[in-house]
Specification:
By secondary structure, the protein is of the alpha/beta class. It is built from 14 helices and twelve strands. A seven-stranded mixed β-sheet has the order 7-6-8-9-10-11-12, sandwiched between helices. The N terminus is likely disordered.
């Protein structure tokens, strides 16, 4: 048996006792699929629990959850998704992993979380009536490149070249490049597209951008980057590149600045939707949940390290300042 197959089997076996007890007591089982590590996903799982509680479900009491983590190895996601389907879970919460989940089943309900436009990226037919076995929530951060360019221009005034780091297989790469490039041109800056499909590529992309004088990086929305926050932040720090992110989590971990919707709100809604589906509602009838609030987070310690002064207006409007 191959080592990877053994690891996957072991991960599934660890959940068997919970599944057996759940089946014996008639407790519904929800699948949770993530590209992150269990540690990285802790706060998102807490948000899912909050959403489930809103509709009357508490893990360990009247619902069970089967967790599957790819731990940054996105190539494992198809097998993990297939494993959840084989265990006949009632619904799968696909945390940034809608593609593998949807490829694994057309029957098991799926509740996705995404930073993409779910219609233009082919996840659903309509925001109001998604249809089929899929619904979910989006934080639409992929459409915020222009705002992130604006913020970096304010905090790193000497920036002459913006680089956008994309995952080459991202469903929204083209639209993110188009929007960010347009914003860079509007403020009279050069624009470079850099790609990273592996851990090794991340470091290389930052090194490449650093060859351009007074450059700054923007990280595009993709689950691959969700799974590599430490590497992204360390690469930016090592080369002293001002970098903007799409989630405040990066800033809490040492990144410079972020602007985007609350990912915890998205996962809370995913938990609520999963509970409603368990109760009998059809996923195709549940409208896609859109963000209602966007957050600005700034790490002042990182700014000082980079020799940057945060303008008073940005300080006044930030939702979170990290010292």
């Amino acid at each position: 048996m191959r080592r990877r197959e053994f690891i996957l089997l072991l991960g599934g076996a660890a959940a068997w006792p919970h599944r057996v007890r759940a089946q014996q007591t008639g407790v519904p089982v929800i699948g949770f699929l993530s590209s992150r590590t269990p540690k990285e996903a802790e706060y998102l799982v807490a948000a899912v629990h909050a959403g489930l509680k809103e509709v009357g479900y508490i893990e360990g009491e009247n619902v069970a959850i089967e967790y599957r983590y790819a731990e940054g190895h996105t190539e494992r996601l198809p097998a993990l998704a297939a494993d959840l389907v084989s265990r006949q879970v009632a619904v799968i919460i696909a945390g940034g992993t809608s593609g593998p989940a949807m490829a694994a089943t057309k029957a098991v309900p799926i509740v996705f979380t995404t930073g993409y436009d779910p219609v233009s990226n082919g996840l659903v037919k309509s925001l109001n009536r998604p249809g089929g076995n899929v619904t979910g929530a989006t934080f639409y951060s992929g459409a915020l490149g222009a705002k992130q360019v604006e913020l970096l221009t304010e905090i790193a005034r000497k920036t002459a070249t913006f680089g956008l780091l994309i995952y080459p297989n991202s469903a929204s790469a083209e639209s993110q490049v188009r929007d960010t490039q347009s914003a860079a041109r509007t403020v009279g800056r050069e624009f470079q597209v850099l790609t990273a499909g592996t851990e090794h590529d991340i470091d290389g992309a930052f090194v490449e951008l650093a060859k351009w004088p007074n450059s700054a990086m923007l990280i595009s929305v993709d689950p691959f980057f969700d799974s590599h926050p430490t590497q992204l932040i360390q690469a930016a720090a090592r080369l002293a590149l001002p970098t903007a992110y799409y989630l405040r989590d990066f800033v809490r971990a040492g990144g410079l600045i972020s602007y985007g919707a609350s990912i915890t709100d998205v996962y809370r809604k995913a938990g609520s939707y999963a509970g409603r589906i368990v109760k009998g509602e059809k996923p195709g009838d549940l409208p896609i949940e859109l963000p209602t609030k966007f957050e600005l987070a700034i790490n002042r310690t990182t700014a000082k390290t980079l020799g940057l002064t945060v303008p008073p207006m940005l300080l006044a409007t930030a939702d979170e300042l990290i010292e």
